[in-house]
What we know:
Radius of gyration of chain A: 26 Å
CATH class of the largest domain in chain A: Alpha Beta
Structural class of chain A: alpha/beta
Oligomer: homodimer
Order of helices and strands of chain A: HHHHEHEEHEEHEHEHEHEEHEE
CATH topology of the largest domain in chain A: Rossmann fold
CATH architecture of the largest domain in chain A: 3-Layer(aba) Sandwich
Shape of chain A: elongated
Strand content of chain A: 5-15%
CATH superfamily of the largest domain in chain A: Response regulator
Number of strands of chain A: 12
Number of helices of chain A: 11
Amino acid sequence: xxxxxxxxxxxxxxxxxxxxxxxxxxxxxxxxxxxxxxxxxxxxxxxxxxxxxxxxxxxxxxxxxxxxxxxxxxxxxxxxxxxxxxxxxxxxxxxxxxxxxxxxxxxxxxxxxxxxxxxxxxxxxxxxxxxxxxxxxxxxxxxxxxxxxxxxxxxxxxxxxxxxxxxxxxxxxxxxxxxxxxxxxxxxxxxxxxxxxxxxxxxxxxxxxxxxxxxxxxxxxxxxxxxxxxxxxxxxxxxxxxxxxxxxxxxxxxxxxxxxxxxxxxxxxxxxxxxxxxxxxxxxxxxxxxxxxxxxxxxxxxxxxxxxxxxxxxxxxxxxxxxxxxxxxxxxxxxxx
Amino acid sequence: xxxxxxxxxxxxxxxxxxxxxxxxxxxxxxxxxxxxxxxxxxxxxxxxxxxxxxxxxxxxxxxxxxxxxxxxxxxxxxxxxxxxxxxxxxxxxxxxxxxxxxxxxxxxxxxxxxxxxxxxxxxxxxxxxxxxxxxxxxxxxxxxxxxxxxxxxxxxxxxxxxxxxxxxxxxxxxxxxxxxxxxxxxxxxxxxxxxxxxxxxxxxxxxxxxxxxxxxxxxxxxxxxxxxxxxxxxxxxxxxxxxxxxxxxxxxxxxxxxxxxxxxxxxxxxxxxxxxxxxxxxxxxxxxxxxxxxxxxxxxxxxxxxxxxxxxxxxxxxxxxxxxxxxxxxxxxxxxx
DNA sequence: CTGAAAGCGCTAACAG
DNA sequence: CTGTTAGCGCTTTCAG
Lengths: 337, 337
């Protein structure tokens, strides 16, 4: 049924299977008429090439990998979704997109040039480094998104988290906030570090010395945001604004505040980071920083596919601008410090 | 470098490549000592089998497909995430998971038994039917999740949306609500239909005739929930509760209410459906219906893999119980009708 | 423009 | 227990 081969077609067309192969691949060597004839027979037989055979001889797998640090924790569903969409928009037919968490691999044995024409790593942590190096060393076309890495010959597209955090903090300062707390991201994630740095820089630029007391640990998820906010609200000297390193944590923070009768933004301002799908829709709508995940993924996939198909090279590093999204969860304060 | 073949190993071990093949595949025919020797040589050479060659001869692709109706609209990121996690937990190594939106296919040519050892369809709409039939007809091991289908020989695991909606509506009635509006899901999605049916059934069981005026169209997303709620609030005779066919729409509804000074749940109750990740964390925490997407996906993947590997068959249909999750967005009303 | 022959890397009879 | 041989379906020299 679906096991028609080029030999079957060859027999029916009265030509050799070589000719069929060439015709189906649009070789210019073939007489247009026989080519048409062969194609129509193939069509009527509902022929589908055996990609395993093609792969073997052409040394291409038609597989692209999209790998995340983890699919268990720290990866928000919105992040996954945006990345998947961005990549899928580009690759259309012609490639299979294989999605996986790097921490699901027990060994990297299955990761090699024969099995992957190219790999996109959505990296969120330095824990990916061994995987990235493994792939690079196996000479698999490779592009690393989201996390900055220092490797030659590996493409790297990242959002400018630090300047995003800087601008957000700056904005909070402009709104008159002086004591600004931060709820940090998952320890070990480069993005957590970059966001905190941006926050610290902005504070210092404004001549404000950061206070350790106002730096809370978080895990990027709702629950940790909630917990951190509880601790913040218990502070004797409560800050007037809280910069959360993710929207998920900002949600948790808002929730914790609401449960304690503290109103956002009237009693305390809360800012997020990520601009997840729902941030615009919750109450209060979240003031946050947008990362261009989907655009970045699209650009990455385009680069990768172009390289695989045309061996076309270009600049290797690029930063994607983040964007301040001002909504309702941050409020200027009138009274001085 | 990564191009070591069994022939290279054979040469070094002083045996035939057949022996190497057998040894590496743990054939009982091989002398344990030579087997060990061969394996250690393979290890030191960092040998990786060429899966394209294996695929060709074994007629297995080592690919599993996870297909969604669409990756563009109507699929929430939480849904995608839960499904992906559930499946990935099961397949571990040994299979590549290929993720795709069915509506991204321009033709199904690439979908065949040579390219997929099995397929999981996360179906959300009857629009998938052609795809499902195509795959079934090509004799690809197939399992359809989430949407009920009528086809023999195709496994089908679905959440009981209708009874979930029924129980939610029943709960609203128990809370004293008489006029209950519904914001419906995306037209054409089977789940939209099932949820509405559950709602209607419960109403009728309570002797209440459903009112057309209280049935609002929606699209499963935030924005449509918002819009629908605006229309509900403009009604002369406003209902005391709103059953939203998705949490995303419930969020939109809450937002619309808040903006108009209508408090949830004090002035109006809002119920959702899905129990997305954030529904517990927003204010007010959403009363909703949980669908066991991740469990369902896990069960589906297990069935599929078992079938592929052991040709083991079992019952073909199964319904997964949905669960009422009572939180804060619905409030009993004391005053009578 | 077309065909014969070889081979991609691996597994599977079939003989020993 | 091991080797010889053939072949999976396709592309690619190399000759016409």
